[in-house]
Amino acid sequence: MPKRKILVVDDQEDVLSLLNEALSKFGFEAMVCKDPKKVLDSVRSFHPDLILLDLLMPNLGGFEICEILNNDPETHGIPIIIISGLGDLVEIKKAYKLGVVGYFVKPFALSDLCNEISKVITNKEKPL
Fold first, then answer.
1. CA–CA separation, 102 vs 44, rounded Å?
2. CA gap 74, 36 in Å, rounded
3. Strand, coil or helix: what is 32?
4. How far, in Å, CA of 81 to CA of 62, rounded?
5. Could you give the CA distance from residue 94 to residue 112 in angstroms, rounded to a whole number?
6. Per-residue pLDDT of the chain (128 residues; tens, 9 = 90+)
7. Which DSSP string corresponds to 50-68?
8. DSSP-based three-state secondary structure for 84
């Protein structure tokens, strides 16, 4: 079975490095994207099974990226899990309204995140 691909979008180098290493240890193939303006190009070239997305980034925030991905026929339907320092109910509700499948507030347990990724990908692959 091929490794499942995870695109990690965050503007913090330490978060990208930590998640890249953790995802690899859990058996995923990870690609990191530090520049939110390059997310669409990264998605189109990498073809991820799931996207981990920060909300607070310069120039283009996570909510805007969700809308862009949801409105593009090529990227619509890729599951998105938010990883953010924002834990207010307002942001969480907004994210779910935009179609995200999970929301983790930093700091979080890497094992919990990886288990959620596995669950989401497994559910995505189940026939209807």
1. 22
2. 18
3. strand
4. 11
5. 22
6. 678 999 999 999 999 999 999 999 999 999 999 999 999 999 999 999 999 999 999 889 999 999 999 999 999 999 999 999 999 999 999 999 999 999 999 999 999 999 999 999 988 776 65
7. EEEE-S--SSS-HHHHHHH
8. strand
Q: Which domains does the chain have, with CATH numbers?
A: 5-125 (3.40.50.2300)
Token code pair at residue 80: 């998105």
> What gap in Å lies between CA 105 and CA 54, rounded to an integer?
10
- Rounded to whole angstroms, how far apart are CA atoms 68 and 8? 16
Strands (E), 1-124: 5-9, 29-33, 50-53, 80-84, 102-105
